Amino acid sequence: MERDSVISAVEKSLSEVLERPVTGLTEEVRLFEDLHLDSTSVLELLMALEDAVDISVDPEDLDMDDFTSVGSLTDYVLSQAAQTTGEG
Fold first, then answer.
1. Spatial CA neighbour of 25 closest among 59, 76, 73
2. Overall domain count for the chain
3. What positions does the domain Carrier occupy (predicted)?
4. Could you say which of 17, 56, 71, 81 is the most buried, measured as most Cβ atoms within 10 Å of its Cβ?
């Protein structure tokens, strides 16, 4: 899975969760401070990403450090994708 495709999936999923267009994300965009997400919207985002990129997320294993920015979220999704496909 390519990093750019994950960022595109994050944009699409964020648009669904926030119910407004989200485009042009960079890895430095902060999820809480810049996009004003809260813990509930992060869970909604993860559920949308599970469907979008075919990953499985265990809420028990979540670390909020993985959700500080688009870049850290992308790293998290890529690591979950690797585990799902057996590459990790």
1. 73
2. 1
3. 1-81
4. 17
Which CATH number does the domain housing residue 73 bear? 1.10.1200.10
User: What digits encode the pLDDT tens for the residues 55-77?
Assistant: 998 888 889 999 999 999 999 99
Question: What is the span of the domain harbouring residue 46?
Answer: 3-85
Distance CA 40, CA 86 (A): 29
Reported for 27-35, long-range contacts at CB under 8 A and 24+ positions apart, including other chains, are 27/69, 27/70, 27/71, 27/74, 28/69, 28/70, 28/71, 29/69, 29/70, 30/68, 30/69, 31/67, 31/68, 31/69, 31/70, 31/73, 32/67, 32/68
The reported pTM is 0.90
Total Cβ atoms within 10 A of residue 31? 22
